Amino acid sequence: MSSEWNNVFRDRMRGFEIKHPHSDNEIPVSIKVRVISGCFHREHSPYAYKIIDDYLSCIPADERDFIFEEHESGPEILVFLAVTTAGLTLAKSVVDLITAIVKARSESVMKGDHPQAPVELIVRRFDKTGEIREEKVLHFNYSDPINPGEIERKLTESTKQLLSDNSKPRREKK
Questions:
Q1: Adjacent-strand bridge partners of 138
Q2: CA distance 100 to 127
Q3: What percent of the chain has pLDDT above 70?
């Protein structure tokens, strides 16, 4: 992982933290839907982004508890996770958005978007030492069934692992 990419990611996460008020028991994370090879952005996935844009337009800006960012390798959602004694809380709106993105990718490939490479769902953050920690949550081929309950369950499991002291830094590809 390049130090340049680390710095860009660090700046993006810091900017998110600064611009969005949060409590001490909330931790900023990045949830990424990343294509395995090729691109997953507007130019190559116009059908997918039409579906994603339609979905996002139904959520008033003042009710969004996340930031949606577009990247060549796929969409990224910046969000705060509430960490309590009972566990982690991931907002339903975030799980619904992730599900909508994965479904949009599947539907759009069937309509002609390219490439048809699988996508993976990744959650990542910086730990106390400043290292990027990453957990791969799920892997989707465009023809795989999409189960929102499974996405939520696996995201919660992966995020718990990501936040544990035993989690080792993972190397992120750009």
A1: 121
A2: 29
A3: 93
Helix axes 148-163, 92-111, angle to 10 degrees: 120
Q: Measure the CA–CA gap between 141 and 152, rounded to whole angstroms.
A: 18
155 CB-side CA count, 13 A: 28
Q: Which amino acid is at 42?
A: R
41 burial via Cβ count (<10 Å: 0-12, 13-18, 19+) = middle
Phi-psi region of 79 (alpha: psi -120 to 50; beta: other; left: phi over 0): beta
CA angle 99, 103, 109 (to 5 degrees): 150
pLDDT at residue 169 above 60? no
Which residues, other chains included, contact 155 with Cβ-Cβ below 8 Å and sequence gap of 6+?
Answer: 31, 90, 95, 98, 121, 123, 137
DSSP string of 53-110, one letter each residue:
HHHHHTS-GGG--EEEE--TT--EEEEEEEEETTEEE--HHHHHHHHHHHHHHHHHHH
In this prediction, residue 173 carries a pLDDT of 45
Residue 68 · residue 116 · CB < 8 Å: no
Residue with tokens 């975030």: 94
Amino acid in the structure at residue 63: E
